[in-house]
Amino acid sequence: MIEVSELTKRYGSKTAVDHLSFTVRPGLVTGFLGPNGAGKSTTLRMILGLDAPTTGTATVSGVPFHRHPRGLRHVGALLDAGQVHGGRSAAAHLSALARGNGIPRRRVDEVLQEVGLAEVASRRIGGFSLGMKQRLGIAGALLGDPPVLMFDEPINGMDPEGVLWVRRLFRRLAAEGRTVFLSSHLMSEMENTADQLVVIGRGRLIAAESVRDFAARGTRRSVVVGTAQAIELAAVLTAAGASVEPEGSAGAERLSVSGLPADRIGALAFENGIRLDELTTRTASLEAAFMELTADSTEYLAGQPR
Ligand SMILES: Nc1ncnc2c1ncn2[C@@H]1O[C@H](COP(=O)(O)OP(=O)(O)OP(=O)(O)O)[C@@H](O)[C@H]1O
């Protein structure tokens, strides 16, 4: 369990993290989302004791991280896959980490196997691709078999096979009862990976809820209706209280209807002798919900200095 309470970080006049409070529970994958510059990395660094908060607290399993002796046994983290000594081999890098945290040497071979780097264990890290460095960073996080795992943008630089692998790994780690916390600025990465979301913008909390609840409170639900009798149907639906927008080109007309559910629209069409060719409920996409909810908190909008 990770608990963040009223966490604030100021750099001079810049408030990077602003009275942030949330809880990350075990047994679930929790996505930490926000546009670029929202304060995700700063928050993760404070949870790991790498940056001191201006005010507020962050605890891991009930105590501040720096009070965990042999930290890697309590929290495994990957913050920046590029920050490794390029001259060392993968095995030497992990062995040094293991030694410093009282972790048996055999764990090095186990985690290298686990992340698919066993065959390149003795190669210098300097020659690794970003995807391979991400795998090595994940290996380092797993080394101490910790109950809490944190990853900053772990999917960056991975190929599609790597993305699938890492998703399955996160799901399995959560199913084992661990706390899994992943940051990303892309909602699409979280859609198929996370159970819960913590969404921030400009250092402030925007949402902390399940992926499903987050999607539901974004874009309003609408129903797309296809019919050759679009004008008659629009009149009937408007009279019943719906708002109706035409979609598509004349001749192949469809209506986008909000304010009435699909079954009610079907019934009204039937009662009025209007034939429907299509009746589809358009559910809010997560991406749309994310864009809507973070629109006011994006720091750098293309072409729009703020
Ligand atoms: N050491 C620092 N000194 C001054 N400002 C900083 C420092 N570190 C971060 N910031 C600022 O704090 C804000 C939050 O940065 P942070 O890196 O935590 O965001 P992020 O959500 O991780 O973004 P990204 O997705 O781009 O990595 C940014 O405006 C950043 O410029």
From TrEMBL:
Family, as annotated: Belongs to the ABC transporter superfamily.
Domain ABC transporter positions: 2-227
UniProt keyword list: ATP-binding, Nucleotide-binding, Transport
Cross-referenced InterPro entries: AAA+_ATPase, ABC_transporter-like_ATP-bd, ABC_transporter-like_CS, P-loop_NTPase
Protein name as catalogued: ATP-binding cassette domain-containing protein
GO molecular function annotations of the record: ATP binding
Residue runs in coiled coils: none
TM helices/strands, residue ranges: none
SMART domains: AAA (SM00382)
PROSITE patterns noted in UniProt: ABC_TRANSPORTER_1 (PS00211), ABC_TRANSPORTER_2 (PS50893)
